[in-house]
Amino acid sequence: MTTPIQFIREASKAVPAIKYAIGIGGIAATISLVYSFKIDPRVAVIGAIIMLLLMGVLVVFARASSLASEKFAKPALVFTWFTLLLFMAVSIFLVGSVFFKWPVDLQCWITANCSTNIGELKIDDCVSKKVQNYEKQESVLSEEQGARSGSKSLGGSIPRDRAPACHTVGVNQQIIQATPHNTCCHGGRCSKSEVTYSDGNRTACIQTEAWSEDKAFGAGGCARYKLEVVYKNIADTSVIDRFKSECILTKNASAK
To answer: How far apart are CA 222 and CA 209, in angstroms?
Structure first.
């Protein structure tokens, strides 16, 4: 049974030009290998250019050594010097760009920290930066809230008052931490509960209580608090889609 390799050999013997088709197939296979190994296409392109230059030099020298024709000697010499000078120029400019940012800045090839120019970023990178900036933490101080009791009447019981002190953030926001700050507590006659969170951490509350002095016509109680709330915005699907549209528009504008 004829194997594929034997078939190609027989075909090459019958039609010698097939060897060029095999060479083209080898190039296509090389491209596939580059992507299968997840090699950066930019590295593959530069490597291919350098490889072709070296192959050209090799072909010239191999041909020159096999042929002593004077007609071939001059073109071979010109091509050899051209290839050599081109190889040197490409090497100089590539090294200068990567290590010294001249004549163009290619230093991100080795630092993996390419320019943050929005026109040069991938759309996903642009959206990610916008989301990070959108979801950064912020803080706010709520209005004063809480309990306030009246004074004790003659022969009456100690008046007590209980009231919540809460703060609610927006629909696409989430509370990270809430810290109560007391603003009013007459004679220490006040108390508060631990902070509780509800509604998907959109609301933070404490329960406050105030009471009056234990004597007739004594001073009333006060338990007033402000909540210092640290929160962040939540980027939902609609926000991410808006950011993506903005990045596409900005990138297209910068490309013009």
So the answer is: 8
